[in-house]
Every structure is written in structure tokens, then in C-alpha cells.
Amino acid sequence: MSLRSLYHTAGLVAACSLLPQLHAQVVINEVSGANMTTFADNNGEYEDWVELFNTGAAPFDLSGGT
């Protein structure tokens, strides 16, 4: 590694350490991509599903998300 690359790497590490740490409040907790028999919906169909979990203390608004 050249000295210039070493300086760039050290500068990047230093800059990243100054940024506030960001944490997602809502995480994907569980995914079922082949739900054949586990959970039926209101129509009796077995759809794929994703479970979200809010790790924060406050409610999180998911409306408008894509």
C-alpha cells in the first residue's frame, strides 16, 4: 500500500468516526417467501409475508414507504 493510499484510508476512517451513528428504527425481523401451510390470510390463502420490528421506543410511521 502506498503512503498516499494509507493517508486516504486514515482520513476516511477519521471522517467516518466524526459522523453521528445512524441506526434503523424499523428492521426486517422475519421473511416467509414460500408460505404454503404456515399462516393463512383472511381469504384462506397462504401469501408470502415480511415481519417488521420497531426497535425504537416511539411509534414509526410506515405510510408512504416503498
How would you characterize the overall build of this protein?
By secondary structure, the chain is of the alpha+beta class. It has a domain at 22-56. It has 1 helix and 2 strands, in the order H-E-E. The chain has one helix at residues 3-18, and strands spanning 26-32, 49-54. The mean pLDDT is 77.
Question: What is the strand tally?
Answer: 2
Question: How much is the average pLDDT?
Answer: 77
Largest sheet entry? 2 strands, antiparallel
Radius of gyration: 21 Å
Name the helix and strand elements from N-terminus to C-terminus, one letter apiece.
HEE
Number of separate helices = 1
Unreliable runs: none
Strand order of the largest sheet: 1-2
What would you call the structural class?
alpha+beta
Provide a concise account of the structure shown.
The protein is of the alpha+beta class.
SSE inventory with pairings:
Elements (H helix, E strand, L loop, with lengths): L2 H16 L7 E7 L16 E6 L12
Antiparallel strand pairs: 1-2
Keywords:
2 strands, 1 helix, 66 residues
